[in-house]
Amino acid sequence: MELDDPGKEETEEDGPGRLAERLRWLYLFAFWSQFKPSEPFLVDYLIEEKGIGSEEVYQDVLDLFVYSRLPFLILVGFCAEMESCGYRAILVLGAASGVLTVLLTRFGVQMCLQQAAQFTVSAAFASRVAVPSLAFTLCLPSQFQEAIHTVKAVMLFSNCCASALGELLRDGDWVPLKVLFDLSALGQVLSLMCAACLPVPRASVATPTASAISNTLEEHLLPRSPTAARCFNLQEHPETIGSPKSACEVFKALVQDVWLSLWLRRVMWWTAWALAMNPIHGLTLTYWQSMVRSKHILKDHNGYLSACMYLAASVGGPQYD
């Protein structure tokens, strides 16, 4: 389903060179934000280097990440729609949280500092949801699909490269585990620098306007669903036209967008699938290292396992036309 928005005409700033330059910074940020060679060995590091017990790791440390993810996601979604904040600022703050996370993990000697790192990493993870949204504002509608798939593939490929590098350095006994965290810190600093260089959205933002959404719904949804038409009618809600100003209007607009979107069957099923799979995915990624340790497997190959998973995801995803 395409949104027909005649107001999104190509301008001088939309030339191939300018578009490529804007997306290049976003791709660089996506790569370095995920480049953490230490990630597959976090549990090993906390147990072997920090002296934290195995049960304490997943009962008193990692569980804080699980519990704090949802509040940070809600906060990021709300702040990203505020005019005073926006997607770019969210990514800059998220990158700074990523740097702080690695520093706390690397140099923190107290349990409370390792626990604090779980909150900062939750903030960093939550900020990544703004990456596709920023991509929408940097390119033309005809480039949406390609840009989103590319940035997702870059993030997955970065995880693959970082995991493989960490495993190679660890297996060869070339560096101790703490040096892997030094490399992760370098990657996070580079991601912060790239975030600071991210361009502002196009002058004529490429995301659909309210009139375009209204026309599309009239054509594809509202004629077949009188209930949806009664529940929300853009013509009867002029306050939805234009950018919301207050926090109350932002929240109201978000609720209306979600409600309208869920009337589209494909969006509804995709949302249901995501709500079911994301918690499972998050719990597995959080606790799988602890489960390996619980089997008394001290010489693991977590890096190679992570690299294979992320590589398969990056090359096996949906293709664009």
Automatic annotation (TrEMBL):
Belongs to which family?
Answer: Belongs to the reduced folate carrier (RFC) transporter (TC 2.A.48) family.
In terms of Pfam families, this protein maps to: Folate_carrier
Organism superkingdom: Eukaryota
The record's listing under SUPFAM superfamilies reads: MFS general substrate transporter (SSF103473)
**Name of the protein described by the UniProt record:** Solute carrier family 40 protein
